[in-house]
Amino acid sequence: MNLLFLALDVGTAAVTVAVALCAWRLLKGPELSDRVLALDTLYMNMVALIILLDIRWDTELLFEAALLVAMMGFVSTVALARYITRGDVIE
Asked: Quick one: three-class SS letters along 44-82?
């Protein structure tokens, strides 16, 4: 069981570093497309972090939160892509 907790801690630390790097790219991105990709990657990393913490804390509540974050991330990525390409989200 200790090996599982060690793997979860290492995975959580790695995903936390990935979240920090995505946040840095979101703030410092030279172009708008870099920032949109960083936001999309940030959503994916947040889903991974929530699932890792859910497994670590042995609860089932956070799986629903991960599902909601994943759905919001997909919808916001599509909306931002449509806004960048067309100038509006809903035609």
From this structure: HHHHHHHHHHHHHHCCCHHHHHHHHHHHHHHHHHHHHHH
Q: Is residue 91 part of a domain?
A: no
Q: Tell me, yes or no, whether 32 lies in a domain.
A: yes
Q: For 54-69, how does the pLDDT look when each residue is reduced to its tens digit (9 = 90+)? A: 999 998 889 999 999 9
**Is pLDDT at 91 greater than 80 in this prediction?**
no
Asked if the structure places residue 19 within a domain, the reply is yes
For residue 87, the 8-state DSSP code is S
Domain count across the chain = 1
Distance CA 34, CA 75 (A): 18
**Domain, as residue range, for 76:** 2-86
User: What's this model's pTM, rounded to 2 decimal places?
Assistant: 0.86
